[in-house]
Amino acid sequence: MTGADLRRPAALAAACGGAFALLAVVLAVHGWRPFGFEAAAVRWGVTHRPEGARSVAVAVTALGTDVFPYVLALAAGAVCVRTGGPSRGRERGRGQGRRTASVLLAPVGWLVAGQLLRQGLMRGFARPRPPAAGWAFDASWFAFPSGHAFTSALSAGLLAWAVARAHPRAARTATAAAALFTAAIGATRVFLGVHWPLDVLGGWLLAGCWLALGACLLPKLPTEPDSHRRRTRPPPDDDRAGHSRRQAAATGPATVLLSGRRTRCLPGPAGPSR
User: Is the confidence at residue 89, as pLDDT, over 50?
Assistant: First the structure.
């Protein structure tokens, strides 16, 4: 990537990382206790949770953990491989196969690295979850930052990033779909009573920082369509010179003949030649 290409993701990583650090400091100063609006949001979810809404929320929140986020990350890698185009000629072979595998698995590896970071922070902060009496979904460990919010935002963001690189016209649609998916899962965490709202916000901020860092650090991939790759390239200078000589040799007699005819037909001072 060029310096201009790196500026935007670097700025986003700094902004999200700074906001996450500031949020963590605010919660630490508050003793990791919930603020009033957080307790009210969880209490509202507990008291307004009909069975149908609970079942839908459980189904949605399940998409933010286990296998599904890794499927999204693997799909992002597949889009990157597809964008790179097929290998040809000397590019084929074991080296190209290793490169293809590394591109395919790079988003998954970045997601795994992010999970390790998030788990370390969660254990270090050790913010308590809401009271277990209001839980409608199993939960473990601590609350901040939300693992479901982080995982869903990062995996969906990786796929949206890959799609935007492969098809720039679809960037807005992919980003909107990723944001909607992330927001739905984050809302279910509060609705099901297993996270405070600022836990979810912290997960989103950490995911935004990690995703932006990934956009800076993951290998740069070619993004032009395959049809552009298969266009006929101009011959090298030596071949071009040889081609010009052959063309001149082939068209020389005809050119001389036509030139002679044009000369004989040109009018002179005394009129046309006869």
Answer: no
- Report d(CA 85, CA 240) in Å as an integer: 28
Q: Which amino acid is at 92?
A: R
How many other β-carbons are positioned within 10 Å of the β-carbon of residue 162?
Answer: 26
- pLDDT for residue 256: 40
| Residues 199 and 145 sit within 8 Å (Cβ to Cβ) | yes
The single residue listed with the structure tokens 């906001």 is 19
Contact 155, 69 (CB under 8 A): yes
CA nearest 63: which of 3, 124, 151? 151
pLDDT digits (tens, 9 = 90+) for 165-175: 889 999 999 99
Q: Which of 11, 22, 61 is nearest to 202 (CA)?
A: 22
Of residues 127 and 93, which shows the higher confidence score? Answer: 127
Rounded distance, CA 53 to CA 51, Å? Answer: 6
- What is the distance between the alpha carbons of residues 250 and 64, in angstroms, rounded to a whole number? 70
Q: What's the mean pLDDT in 50-68?
A: 94
Q: How far apart are CA 24 and CA 145, in angstroms?
A: 9
Estimate the crossing angle of helix 171-191 against helix 197-217, to 10 degrees. Answer: 150
- Point out which residues pair with 267 in neighbouring strands: 272
Q: How many CA atoms lie within 13 A of 222 on its CB side?
A: 13
